[in-house]
Specification:
The chain folds into two domains: 132 residues, no CATH class; 149 residues, D-amino Acid Aminotransferase, Chain A, domain 1 (2-Layer Sandwich). The strands form four sheets. Strands 13-12-11-14-15 form a five-stranded antiparallel sheet. It is globular. Helix 3 packs across helix 6 and helix 4 packs across helix 5. It is built from six helices and 15 strands. A hairpin with a 6-residue loop joins strand 11 and strand 12. The protein is 27% helix and 24% strand. The protein is α+β, with helices and mostly antiparallel strands.
Amino acid sequence: MGAGGMLKSVPRWDGLRAPMFDDFEINNNQIVAKETGAQIPLTAGFFRDVWRIASFVGIVQGLRWTRLLRGHEPRARISFFPRKPRSYYVIWPVCQLADVKIVDDPAEADLHFYFEDREFRVAPARSPSNKPSFNVGCFDIRKSVVARTFEEVFGYGLSIDPSVHRGRAVEKSELNGRHDGRVVECPIAVPQRDRVYQRLIDNTFDGREFIDIRTPVVGGKIPFVYLKRRRPDLRFSNENHRVDLIDAGAVLSESERGKISEFARAMSLDFGGLDVLRDREDGRIYIVDVNKTDMGPPSALSGAEKLAAMRGLAAAFAALVDDRLAGRGA
């Protein structure tokens, strides 16, 4: 193959090109995602995280180029609809490491993936063809829907009626990415219509450090979990002072993992991330959030841990792709 032909086969570094910035705008010293309204403060930490993400993307792209230059054929070809993920979304490095080539033309794809960074549609998006697809039925991940599905699967609830509940509770937006939760005292005479009200969970191990069990789910399996640790003043934020990569079995029982898998099926979530909290008082877990367009890996991880996490997800996704192409699973 000549140099020109080889260069044509090298993928473009899509996530770091100028079009990435079309997804965001700056407002009052914050980066605002146009599609979701999620807000990220413009701090020194933000720019540090951007550099870490760019460095990691470069590592993943380098690994993929090495495979291409060796003439390595992809395991499968996948198209995303209605839009392709940028490189700062988890599914992008996962596809690269799983040897799943992202293509623009759905007709060239072996599989399809519904990818839209929004919480709600009135109906599922239409898949481009009858080829195997991922996340197509996951079109409503509002917090009230997550709480209702959680109660149906687990048999105990998270939601409360703020007009009759007595004591403290959490008030937060229905929508993802807001990180605007706050503790309120109930009963509340006039609850806000665009908010949800849930029981206040003491998700600490020691009463001081709040811990979210970020749980990736791929085809109903949990490759690992992230333990996201936060100080009390950052309890409802997205800022972690430490993130640990942990074997799922170390923090979730076999029964809990089975229920989480059942919950993911009920949400039609083939690939995504769940925010799971364990209540210090009753010892039970609560799923408080679903993300079908997960970003990451978490910037607080080291480069080696980021790569290990994405390789773990890639192995699980590769197995899921193989199963779907072989006609196994739905």
